[in-house]
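Response to reviewer comment R2.3. The reviewers asked that we include at least one raw input/output pair. We reproduce the pair for Phosphoethanolamine N-methyltransferase 1 here without editing.
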Amino acid sequence: MDTITVVENVFGEVERKVQKSYWEEHSKDLTVESMMLDSRAKDLDKEERPEVLAILPSYAGKTVLELGAGIGRFTGELAKEAGHVIALDFIDSVIKKNEEINGDIYKNITFMCADVTSPELKIEDNSVDIVFSNWLLMYLNDEEVEKLIGRIVKWLKPGGHIFIRESCFHQSGDSKRKVNPTHYREPRFYTKVFKECHSYDQEGNSFELSLVTSKCIGAYVKSKKNQNQICWLWEKVKCTEDKGFQRFLDNVQYKSTGILRYERVFGEGYVSTGGFETTKEFVDKLDLKAGQKVLDVGCGIGGGDFYMAETYDVHVLGIDLSINMVSFAIERAIGRSCSVEFEVADCTTKEYAENTFDVIYSRDTILHIQDKPALFRNFFKWLKPGGKVLISDYCRSPGTPSEEFAAYIKQRGYDLHDVKTYGKMLEDAGFHDVVAEDRTDQFLRVLERELGETEKNKEAFLADFTQEDYDDIVNGWSAKLKRSSAGEQKWGLFIATK
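Raw output as returned:
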């Protein structure tokens, strides 16, 4: 055994002793308050438990492995529909309390006292449909997290799912603690570990984890204005060459450095045309009222959502397909104490109940969507009667685009329409009082200002970014100016009412 392995083992043993001591201290009272480390636990539990369960895929008749099961807040709920639940916790008194609460009611639960980091924990490969973990990885060190995720992927059947929920950045509960060994990590740590995890079966097939969704727990946003409760749902899939549109966004168009350089141009918190200036102008048209609910489709890094929530006291749900965008948005939310939650989601597959939102807002995003009529029908369904939709988006002039513009559209994967046709699609979806404005003149003024500021502040830009980054921005903005000045690329503003 080499020196590094010995040191890792020693640190691992110390970590486990510290964590076990911590939870033995907080498990003297086997109550929901002690498990959630919060005096308001009962109220929070009523709100968040159904929210968490609603994120899960169907577990009817399935095998569910619950890691860190505690006294069974979720165990009984899972057992109502699952074929078999394996409930595991490393504190003996806690798992016994779980069995006392749920064992007589549900005969499909196996209760286990075990440490998830122990090599003695044996779960058969490809035997589990869903692994469920609510506040667990934050009590493991980084190496333990990586090793456990590697084991979980092997335990899962192909097509199986992992749900994890963690406290990120800082403590949420108000319980007094003598010591607190919890690892309050940035969400991107967990995302990176899951994205980089691979496993192989006996036939040599390679499997990876594909993100289904990631979001703030809404109950904590509503009750505490706290965005640090983050959950992820991953699916075990066979590795393929085609990584899909989400990977394209995160690895090509919206890499982390790309997002930051866009923000440098658009202004802090913004990655769409005009930044704060156009956001304020457009949002002011919505006549927002305190307590209303807004859906932001393609929320980016959250600047517009923070503005709406802080200025008008509305609740905003921001969704974006880019993991990188949402990661930045959640990080920027910390400490703001506003009612904004974020979720990685595909607006073309996401479902909401009818009459959920007062406003649907989208800035320069729907250009990515190929089937706009279907999306607009969903917008109409999701809005309350009298609700409004506001969209700004890239458009094009009527007729056939030039070869150069057509190549640009294809390379970006855009679906562009002329302003009139765009407005007609909203009318066809059922909307009334449709305003479809050609805002290309404003677009040109904004582009010229943004390009001018970038060139004027070249030295400061190059202190934080590369020459290639600078050239990409200058060339990209110059090309947009050329296409728009020639009348090919347009920018539209659309407002409509249900």
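Residues 3-8 have pLDDT under 50 and may be disordered. The first helix runs from residue 3 to 25. Further pairs are available on request from the corresponding author.
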